[in-house]
């Protein structure tokens, strides 16, 4: 059996609660081009909420919003991966035998706004911004891998963002499933298949 995944919609009031960014700041971010324009009332889906939460967290730390926007789509993938690693993130016929470790990447491939060819997620826990304006994703903030990365970058960790913590918080604050699952038998989706919108 193959699954279709439908991203649930959240309004700006829900986005304020989930991403901790006020509706006023949401409008300002949209007006200045840091969030995509929308017709009518703002509608947010999983990846939008992840990006909004990241931009808001970086702005609160004094990071220039343009830099946060540059990395937001990739960090949103990591946040989504961690949010989707819990069974209550899904509504619909999800088999208890189905490994959630496989389901989260399947949702990302099918639903990512980056497209199926760029939807590979780095399921590391931490996003790290370095002094040279580059970023890395690491599972731990200690150990040999961190030391090697720090040596390559000439020291200087500027910011650390915990994608797992953000994903867990997003899922909990949402208070309802993030993805609706529809069971379908037949042929697996092509790489050009995108998730359908919820109505």
Textual characterization of the structure:
There is one protein chain. This protein has helices at residues 12-19, 23-31, 46-60, 65-83, 100-111, 144-152, 163-174; strands at 2-7, 10-11, 43-44, 90-91, 126-130, 135-138, 157-162, 179-184. The protein is an alpha+beta fold. The protein has one domain. The strands form 3 sheets. Strands 1-8-4 form a 3-stranded mixed β-sheet. It has a 3-stranded antiparallel β-sheet with strand order 6-5-7.
In round numbers, the mean pLDDT is 80
For the biggest sheet, the summary is:
3 strands, mixed
Strand content: 15-25%
Radius of gyration: 17 Å
Count of spatially separate domains = 1
- In spatial order, strands of the major sheet run 1-8-4
Keywords:
alpha+beta, 3-stranded mixed beta sheet, 3-stranded antiparallel beta sheet, 8 strands, disordered C terminus
Produce a short descriptive summary.
By secondary structure, the chain is of the alpha+beta class. The protein has helices spanning 12-19, 23-31, 46-60, 65-83, 100-111, 144-152, 163-174, and strands spanning 2-7, 10-11, 43-44, 90-91, 126-130, 135-138, 157-162, 179-184.
Which SSEs are present, and which pair or pack?
Layout: E1 2-7, E2 10-11, H1 12-19, H2 23-31, E3 43-44, H3 46-60, H4 65-83, E4 90-91, H5 100-111, E5 126-130, E6 135-138, H6 144-152, E7 157-162, H7 163-174, E8 179-184
Helix pairs in contact: 1-7, 3-4, 4-7
